[in-house]
Amino acid sequence: MSTSAVEPGTRLAERFRLEDRVSESDGATLWKAIDEILARPVAVHTFGPDFPRVHEVVTAARAASRLTDPRLTQVFDAAEDDKAAYVVSEWVTGESLTDLLASGPLEPERAAGLVAEAAEALAHAHEAQLYHLCLRPAHLVWTTGNTVKVLGVAVDAALSGLTTDQPALDDAEGLGRLLYAGLTGHWPGDEEEGGLPAAPMTDDHFCTPRQVTAGVPSYLDTVTVRACLPESRKGQGALASPAEVAEALADVARPMPIPIAYPSTPAIASASHTEGLDVAHRQQLPVQPLPPTPRRPPSGGGSTLNRVLMTLVVLLVIAAVGVGAWTIGRSLGSPTTPETKGTSPGTTTAASVPTQVVKPKKAQGFDPLGDRDEKSEIADLAIDGKPGTLWKTERYTSADLGNLKKGVGLLLDMGKSVQISDVVATLSDVPGATVELKVGDSPELSALKTVATQKNAAGKTTLTPDQAATGQYVLIWFTRVPADAGNFHGTIYEVVVHSPGSA
Fold it and tell me: Which domain of life is it from (predicted)?
């Protein structure tokens, strides 16, 4: 299928509808498209008949599709046949490093945190023998979901026909250039890049970040020099791989999701027809009706009756006061009356039982009502003990999962049946999620019993069973997911399961 034959509205694989042409270069065209099955935007590359590297690009895309680090662009599909060749990948929204530098250099710690995340992600790609080779500010994105994303691993190099015999060193230098740009607002190259001015030079080599921008910490200056400024190393060893760059930046603070402040009554203009109702119900407490105003009896001949009724009322009040005083006195004088009659007998005992963390054997994305999988390739990131990694659902068009299904979730296999004291799930900081805790001895949805529910959940959420719960499988089940830049998805950074012991 030639580029000229591919127009807005074209459908690929009976699923991906091309909408807007984003860019075109050397016979390769980038489109914004819609995945009509999952109702989400995707990026699609198509190729003209004269594009010489279709096979290389499709092969690279298929290899990149096996990468599981959420900080790398996901590849969803790639095809090469007589009718059409295309690559479908994640549509990423946010601000690239170029955008972030539009008003000047970043705070040093923020620049270092962004590059540290990118270095760790690329180190994972290198473990799979996949490389970037053409890192530029446009490839490093701070997404609208408040995460770091590195675009174009393997695919962009194939698109450009780039090869090298030292890929680890080249990607380490690329990371160093990104750090240089973040610290100074300049690009350490002979020409401008992405609107950034070229870095100043002295004695025929680039100035170090500290020579360009005041306030750059010396250790970040050193990391940058070791990564991409060989003329200024002065005996210091080069950082020769993304893993070494990541290690050098391991102690910097990482950019964290930015909590969003909501008004006491959230606006729901862009939400579904049920969004926010739970909050509204909590805020609008029922108003107790006032007691009816006593009717005044008619004057005249009823005066005798009035006096009789008034006398009866007074006698009843005196009797009630007497009974109340007798009851209170008896209660105070009785040493055997329990003081916490309404307290559950097991409350104190349960609180004193120590709990232990039980490590799940494995995790998987759970979508029994759809295609039976929900990003299982990154599910283990929610149980790896690292708060900076995460599992997330697919993106949906509304909080109720686009009306496509009743729920999706993360299923934990504990390896054996265990008693569950509670489960602590660290969710996105954006409120709006409804999550249920389901437990059972079979991974089938019908066999998992709901033991706890949390509405409008956000951040660290503790799900405590309302009764004893035991099972091999623990499911964190989203029935509603929070908003994210016009889309909706559920996010779990980390899950910790507590148990009083094996069942």
Answer: Bacteria
Strands, E, within 40-197: which ranges?
40-47, 75-80, 85-90, 94-96, 140-143, 148-150
| Residue 279: predicted pLDDT | 30
Contact criterion met (CB below 8 Å) for 54 and 100: no
Higher-pLDDT residue of 347 and 105 is 105
| CATH number of the 10-90 domain | 3.30.200.20
- Whether 42 contacts 80, CB under 8 Å: no
Which pLDDT score is estimated for 397? 85
pLDDT > 90 fraction of the chain, expressed in percent and rounded: 62
Closest CA to 167 of 89, 255, 240, 260: 240
CA distance 181 to 501: 52
Question: Judging by beta carbons within 10 Å of its beta carbon (0-12, 13-18, 19+), is residue 289 exposed, middle or buried?
Answer: exposed
Closest CA to 91 of 80, 76, 79: 76
Q: Which residue has the higher pLDDT, 337 or 15?
A: 15
Alpha carbons 414 and 188: distance in angstroms, whole number: 50
CATH entry, 94-249, from 3.30.1360.10, 3.30.420.40, 1.10.510.10, 3.30.565.10: 1.10.510.10
- Token representation of residue 397: 């068009």
pLDDT per residue over 350-392, tens digit each?
Answer: 444 678 999 999 999 999 877 778 888 899 999 988 877 889 9
Residue 333 banded pLDDT, cuts 50, 70, 90: very low
Instruction: Kindly list the domain boundaries of the chain, sorted by start residue.
Output: 10-90, 94-249, 355-500
Which CATH superfamily, name and number, covers 355-500?
Galactose-binding domain-like (2.60.120.260)
Q: Are the C-beta atoms of 473 and 394 separated by less than 8 Å?
A: no
Mean confidence (pLDDT) of the chain: 83
The alpha-helical segments, DSSP class H, found in 229-302 are 242-248, 277-283
Instruction: Tell me which amino acid residue 281 is.
Output: H
Please, which residues have CB within 8 angstroms of residue 422's CB and are 6 or more apart in sequence? 355, 462, 463, 464, 465, 498
Taking only the tens place, the pLDDT of each residue in 391-418 is 999 888 888 888 888 999 999 999 999 9
Q: Are 253 and 109 in contact (CB under 8 A)?
A: yes
